[in-house]
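Project outcomes to date are best conveyed with an example. Our students and postdoctoral researchers have been running inverse folding experiments weekly, and each run begins with a structure described purely in C-alpha cells. The record below, which covers 293 residues, was selected by the lab manager from last quarter's runs and is presented without edits.
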C-alpha cells in the first residue's frame, strides 16, 4: 500500500516526546530517526512512523550544494524547520544548531535555541561537541529546551580533528569519547548522536550512559539510528558515505523521467490532447470572429 500524503493528523499514532526516547531505551526499542528538509518528505517520514525527524545542517550540503556544513546559517534553517513542522504531526522534531549559533556564549546559545522552538516550531535542538560544549548544553537544557548531544565526528569542527575520520580507533580516543558522553549526560541531554565512532567504543558508551544513543556510522549496538534521507533515497550522487545504505536510486529514476520529458517536448509529443484545456464552441466562435475583425 502506498503512503498517503495527507499531512493531516493520524489519530492512530501517539505523538513522540523526549520522554519516549528514555522509555524506548529502557525497553530495548530501537529509535528510528531520519533527516528531512521539506514538507513532502516530512509527511512521508511521519506517516510511515519514524520516531524523530532531524532538520540537519546537512541541508547545506545535500540541498544548497555547500562543500561543508559550515556556511549554513540559522536564517536558512528556520524556514526549513517550519516546512517540516507543517508536514509532521507525530515524530519528535529536532533542529540542528548550525556553526557559531551556540559557541559564542551560553546566552547566545539559549537565544538561538529558543528561535528554533518559537520560530522554527521544533521541539528540541541538537548541539555538536563533547565536554567542551557540556556547559552550553546544560544552559540550554536548564532554559527548558531539550538538547540532543552529538559526539564523535562533529562535521562543524572536523578540520580541527584531521578531517572526516573515524573516531575511537585507540584506547585513549575511546576513553575521551566515553568521558564526552558522560559529560553530556550530566549536562542534561536527552540523547546523544554518535557519529563515525568505532563499534566497540559506541557499544561501551551505549551501555555506560542512561540516555539513548543514536548512531550514524557507529555500528550495531546504539539505541537507535539516523541517516540523511537523501542517502536513503539515493538522491545525493555526489558522495555516498560508507555507513549509509541506499534503499532505492531516485537520482536515476528522476533523471530518466526528466530525460523522457525533454525528449517528448523536443519531438512535439508532449503535451497531448488530454493535457490541454479547450473553450466551448460558442466562446470559440466569438473568439474567431473577434480575431477576424
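After processing, the design step wrote out the following sequence:
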Amino acid at each position: 500500500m502506498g503512503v498517503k500524503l495527507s499531512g493531516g493528523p493520524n489519530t492512530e499514532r501517539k505523538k513522540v516526546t523526549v520522554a519516549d526516547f528514555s522509555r524506548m531505551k529502557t525497553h530495548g526499542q530501537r529509535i528510528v530517526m531520519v533527516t528531512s528538509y521539506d514538507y513532502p518528505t516530512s509527511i512521508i517520514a511521519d506517516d510511515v512512523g519514524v520516531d524523530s525527524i532531524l532538520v540537519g545542517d546537512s541541508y547545506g550540503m545535500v540541498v544548497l550544494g555547500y562543500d561543508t556544513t559550515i556556511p549554513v546559517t540559522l536564517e536558512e534553517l528556520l524556514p526549513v524547520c517550519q516546512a517540516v513542522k507543517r508536514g509532521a504531526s507525530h515524530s519528535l522534531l529536532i533542529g540542528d544548531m548550525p556553526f557559531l549559533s551556540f559557541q559564542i556564549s551560553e546566552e547566545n546559545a539559549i537565544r538561538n535555541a529558543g528561535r528554533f522552538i518559537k520560530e522554527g516550531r521544533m521541539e528540541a535542538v541538537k548541539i555538536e561537541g563533547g565536554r567542551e560544549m557540556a556547559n552550553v548544553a546544560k544552559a540550554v537544557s536548564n532554559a527548558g529546551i531539550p538538547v540532543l548531544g552529538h559526539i564523535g565526528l562533529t562535521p562543524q569542527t572536523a578540520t580541527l580533528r584531521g578531517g572526516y575520520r573515524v573516531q575511537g580507533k585507540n584506547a585513549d580516543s575511546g576513553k575521551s569519547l566515553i568521558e564526552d558522553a558522560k559529560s553530556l549526560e550530566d549536562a542534561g541531554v536527552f540523547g546523544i548522536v554518535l557519529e563515525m565512532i568505532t563499534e566497540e567504543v559506541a557499544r561501551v558508551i551505549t551501555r555506560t550512559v542512561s540516555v539513548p544513543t543514536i548512531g550514524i556510522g557507529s555500528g550495531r549496538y546504539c539505541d537507535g539510528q539516523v541517516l540523511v534521507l537523501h542517502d536513503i533515497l539515493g538522491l545525493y550522487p555526489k558522495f555516498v558515505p560508507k555507513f549509509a545504505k541506499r534503499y532505492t536510486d531516485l537520482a536515476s529514476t528522476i533523471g530518466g523521467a526528466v530525460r523522457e520529458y525533454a525528449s517528448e517536448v523536443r519531438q512535439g509529443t508532449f503535451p497531448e490532447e488530454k493535457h490541454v484545456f479547450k473553450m466551448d464552441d460558442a466562446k470559440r466562435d466569438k473568439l474567431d470572429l473577434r480575431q477576424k475583425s
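Residues 18-248 form a domain with the TIM Barrel fold (CATH 3.20.20.60). Residues 35 and 54 are 5 Å apart (CA to CA). The training component of this project remains on track.
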